[in-house]
Amino acid sequence: MHSFALKNGKYLSEYPVSGSSTFKVRPPINWLMIFDRSGSTHYDLPKLVEDLKILCRKIPSGDTLSLGWFSSEGGQYDFFLKGWRVGSEDFQGLDHLLDQMKSSLSLTCFSEILDEAKTVVETLKVMSGSTSFVLSFFTDGYPIVSNYSREIEKIHTAIKNLSGKISAIQLVGYGPYYNKALLADMAKRFGGVLVHANDVRKYRIALEEFSETQSGFSSTPVQLEDLKHAKFVFALSGKDVISLEPDSKGVVQVPGGSNSLYVVSDNPPSQKGKFCQVDELLPALYGASYLASTQMDVDSALEFLNATRDIAPMKLLMNANLNSEYGAAEELIREAITSPTKRYTEGKAQGDFVPDRNAFCFLDALDTLTSDPEARFHLSKEWRASYKPIGTKITPSPDAPKFDAEEDVFVPLYDDGDGGNLVWNESRLNLSIRCTIPGHILLRPGHETYGLASCFPTRVIRNYTLVRDGIPNVKVLLVSMSQASFDLLSRHGLLPPDTPWASGRAYELDLMKVPVMNRAMVDEVKSAVPICQNTLRIQELKAHLKVWRDAYETEFPKEERKLEGFSVLSQDAAKFLSEHYITARGFEPPTTSAPGTDFYEATSFKIAMKGFSNLPKVEEVKIRLREGKKLTPVMEFMVKALSGIEAEISPISGDSSLPSVRETIMRLKISELKSELAFLRRKTNRAKMSILLGKRWPEEFSSRDECEIAVDGYSFTFKREKVKVDY
After folding, report:
1. Architecture of domain 23-216
2. What is the DSSP letter of 61?
3. 551-561 burial by CB neighbour count: b if 16+ within 10 A, else e?
4. What is the pTM assigned to this prediction?
5. How many CB atoms sit inside 10 A of residue 575's CB?
6. Per-residue pLDDT tens digits for 117-149
């Protein structure tokens, strides 16, 4: 028995396991593969099915294969293939069966298919004559059922009923939205492996690797006194970290093929053994870190990694907030268990290593671009084709003509205070880029009557979602930028190394190279007071900006912007175009949205100020002021702005020779207000990220329900709630 003492008072101990290989020859294995067909899988399900075809062909001859899928509660599941013996038939029939599984269905329920798995196992045990079963369970979501608590109880019961019947279990969490905590708990109860997969290809690789390590050996029961105080109990099988949970008698079942049991405890080991150096238990330290990370215990994971002195995974884990970010760190840690070449890829720390809590992140990259007047998003034809829309499918009216868009569109990213073309959702962490796309419509016969060309130029406005509920929806952006922005983003790895800068050139910005936010941002959220003060100042700036703009546009009116040529069209010509759904704003055909087949629960967050809703018209405020009527809080801000105009503009307003001076003063003031507003909005979005993704809540509040607080004489309400989002 070997032990290693960590600096935090924990102990990692290795206990040898004898008798773990009870078969001299590998017995036939019964493979059970279960996959998710809920509505959220509609985009990836066809690729998943094709990969399953490849995987099935790699199962050794003589093994049996059972395939099952699941969707909504109430019987929407099926083991459509049971006990198919590999090698006894060709694969054409199997391919045909799988091809019928490429369409997604509805919601998500785990328990029913897991309960059915027990029946399949018991039947195959008799039919195949083999007691070796391997289960793979794939999902991209979490249960959406009528009673969630009851569903969790049913999952626990199903796992208990399968206990001792399955030799090895792999749970695969796919994409950004699955419930990591639930799958980690299921893996622990199963005595199985939890693996993250960013895409379908990663799932296939993970399952291939898992299948290669399966020996079919039976498990070995182990009972230790130290298990009573254990924080983590696990075994290693190749790169797989198998989480184990002692039963009521303090016994764990160590999977066949694993020669050691590892225990992490706050107490010194009770058995006599030697304390060893870190190198002797290096794979186990990586394994313990992997297990802690999958169970969302980042502090423990970092402690184990700090013992290894491996810098690269510590940097990734420190600023991880999303499933994909944890997955990237876990993938590197998992590789390091068996591969020395995957260790110390960024060097070995000489002492305790503290990763940068203020690492450059996605929001820093956005701030860089929105502060750069030269930054432009290149909406190429190829990028549009690869974009993955969110929500349900939107279809234009059948009678609408086809819009042919220009192949390359350039969208400014600079935010001068009006919000620019990057638009944050008011309550959810959704960020979209608003793109005005020029193109043309082929008009129906009769256009000659109105002097219109058959190929009529127009435009559409499209929103492309870059971030959905705090999770990047795109991996790459095509962006041109100033050299200063280019140099900064290059230093932080978002651009290919050794690439020269050129003005106007579009570069692929790899958004996956940095975390969506860093740990320092999360830790900033302590008190509600600065958040409220920031919100108050934003409301004040919006009120002042409205007043100054009104004054400027009254004195220096501008013509309404319309599509080129629309101002000279006859009424009949405009009516003809409107029948094609073309107006002065562009091409706007009516659309219908497909009904949702699945949904997930997103978290929304709002900060409301009492007395501050919509900004009233400036003229309404002036009338109330003249009539001596009571003013709302937001009107008082606008009155203050009116007084500011009087003070700054009135002294020169009587001199008709100075209109350019007045215009310059107004423009500068508007620009100043917009600049501060843009800065404070960026701060607000960072605070929202920290509250929603970082799971922080101001220390003044004892609960996470609707909370109120008074700051600087104003009343603020913090409201956080779950909202249903359809697929």
Report:
1. 3-Layer(aba) Sandwich (3.40)
2. T
3. bbeeeeeeeee
4. 0.76
5. 11
6. 999 999 998 887 777 888 999 998 889 899 999
Return d(Cα 180, Cα 300) in angstroms, integer.
17
Region label for 11, one of left (φ > 0), alpha (ψ between -120 and 50) or beta (otherwise): beta
Question: Which tens digits make up the pLDDT trace of 665-715?
Answer: 888 899 889 889 888 888 888 888 888 888 888 999 988 778 999 999 999
| 3-state secondary structure string across 531-545 | HHHHHHHHHHHHHHH
Which residue is associated with the tokens 């100043």?
672
CA distances from 33 to 77, 78, 109 (A): 13, 12, 16
Angstrom distance (rounded) from CA 320 to CA 515: 6
Element (H, E) at 196: strand 193-197
DSSP H helices in 5-110: 45-56, 92-99
Domain ranges of the chain: 1-20+245-355, 23-216, 362-522, 534-556+589-726
DSSP assignment, residue 39? G
140 burial via Cβ count (<10 Å: 0-12, 13-18, 19+): buried
Q: CA separation (Å) from 80 to 37, 50, 91?
A: 13, 16, 15
What is the rounded distance in angstroms from the CA atom of residue 154 to the CA atom of residue 117? Answer: 13
